[in-house]
Design a protein that fits this description.
This protein is α+β, with helices and mostly antiparallel strands. A hairpin with a 4-residue loop joins strand 2 and strand 3. The longest helix is centred in the last third of the chain and has 10 residues. The radius of gyration is 14 Å and the shape is globular.
Length: 104
């Protein structure tokens, strides 16, 4: 399993709604992520800055590259676009993070 981490930006005042929507994550989206090889996916919030920090583990044979084109993923992004900074296609703006330390 490979671990990756990235940040996204939540709009001010949207934390509770962001949590509510994720607490009710669509089963078809959860299945899509799992089918793409994603495991152990967590998102954390820095309440002072609105920065979301995501970390996930993915199989070496993951299929994450096709997720942006999947209709379920596109619907989720459109559903979440009012809460986050996104590009013109509603994809959340994200910034990959470099691993610096790991204590197994």
């Amino acid at each position: 399993m490979e671990q990756i981490a990235f940040t996204m930006q939540l709009r001010a005042g949207c934390a509770e709604e962001y949590r509510r929507r994720h607490d009710a994550l669509w089963p078809e989206l959860a299945g899509l992520l799992r089918d793409a090889g994603i495991r152990d996916y967590s998102i954390f919030l820095d309440p002072g800055s609105g920065t979301l920090f995501a970390v996930l583990r993915r199989a070496s044979t993951h299929g994450m590259d096709v997720l942006p084109d999947h209709p379920v993923m596109q619907r989720w992004w459109a559903y979440m676009a009012d809460l986050m900074e996104t590009d013109s296609g509603n994809r959340p703006l994200s910034h990959g993070l470099l691993p610096m330390f790991h204590l197994p």
